[in-house]
PAS domain-containing protein
Amino acid sequence: MNSAPSIPEEIIKLFDKSSIALSLASAGSDKPLIAANKKFCELTGYDIEEIVGKNCRFLQGNYDNTDAKKNIHQFLNGNAGLSIRQPLINVKADGTPFINLLYMSRLCDGIGNTQFILASQFDISNTHTENLNHYGVVLGNTLKKITPLAHQAGIILEGSITALANSTAMIAQAKLTLAELQSANHIF
């Protein structure tokens, strides 16, 4: 049985209503998934039963993602800010690769101990800037709704607004990553 704190019911309800892919991982040593919404399952092609208890790294398949992994590990180890937005190559259940614009933030208790890792995933493969902008707005609104719900349960969402403030730069970087991958690998 997972020793992670229980997920506040209000957050689960918000996950279920969200129009974007959301997942929640335990702050335990391997950061296993403990919750994901329907949009996450639609995006990845996995059923919830297949993913709960696994670290999201299984989505990387055989792709290198060296720089992305380094940045994610620094974030998870507390050495790189309060939240992160990172493009990386992921693989759907059917083997189809996609570029995931991953957002992660820590949910902490009142004394700063990480309880959960909140993540949102967005497929930026062959997407338009307007879709990324819309995703940024929806993610921002979702984070604004989660913040007071988490606070009521004694949990603090760290760094949500900071990451969103850099949205334009991240969109440009994600597009550059996609263009580089398309020209180098012809996979998308």
